[in-house]
Amino acid sequence: MRILICEDSVLLREGLIRLLEDAGHLVVDALSEDTDVMDVVARHEPELLIMDVRLPPTYSDEGIRAALKVRQQRPDLPLLVLSQYVEERYATELVVAHAESLGYLLKDRVTDVTEFLETLEQIRQGATVLDPEVVAQLLTRRQHDHRMQSLTDRERTVLAAIAEGKTNQAIAKLLHLSEASVEKYTSSIFTKLGLEADGEGNRRVLATLAHLENTSQGRTTP
């Protein structure tokens, strides 16, 4: 896979390069800031972009804003956002704008190399993978919505797990349930939220988030 990295931390940037190249991927470029990311994308045509949220010069939201710009201009380019914190407002915009081939992971929670590499491949193939903390905060914003309030604690747990990209089998193992029980919870969740189940778990959850965002009376300021 051809991968472009945009990460200001030298240690993390070089670590990612070594990790990806050892796994057989080609790092077409590794940037320390976002100033020319679109030019580099056009020049190298990467198959995946890994973008840090906070980049020079202010180390606030340059990276995530650049990610949104990339999604607007190149929605076909798979994107993985790495962050130290959940930038809730921007995460919502990314999800609502174009959820496919999207990942948002917190750096400190990436602890398994094999799982990380598998996540990259899932994103390249069109999946959407969100860190559980990202999912939790996005769902929390919508607690005022009566549909979200109608979910049981177990259904919320299943919903968050689906959003992480977990299969019914994986959720069953995680929660010590049968796959049939997970299917029943999933069906109940989408019935309560007024959505039809389409067989693609993580995208269904992202559709839910987008649906609740678009039909709520107004956004809550983070």
Automatic annotation (TrEMBL):
UniProt-listed InterPro entries: CheY-like_superfamily, NreC/VraR/RcsB-like_REC, Sig_transdc_resp-reg_C-effctor, Sig_transdc_resp-reg_receiver, Tscrpt_reg_LuxR_C, WalR-like
Keyword line: DNA-binding, Phosphoprotein, Transcription, Transcription regulation
Chain ranges of the HTH luxR-type domain: 144-214
SMART domains, sorted: HTH_LUXR (SM00421), REC (SM00448)
Lineage top rank: taxon: Bacteria
Residues bearing the modification 4-aspartylphosphate: D52
Residue span, Response regulatory domain: 2-122
PROSITE patterns, alphabetized: HTH_LUXR_1, HTH_LUXR_2, RESPONSE_REGULATORY
Gene3D superfamilies attached to this UniProt entry: 3.40.50.2300
Pfam family of the protein (one): GerE
Cross-referenced PANTHER family: TRANSCRIPTIONAL REGULATORY PROTEIN NARL-RELATED (PTHR43214:SF24), TWO-COMPONENT RESPONSE REGULATOR (PTHR43214)
Protein name as it appears in the record: Response regulator
Organism: Micrococcoides hystricis
Lineage of producing organism: Bacteria, Bacillati, Actinomycetota, Actinomycetes, Micrococcales
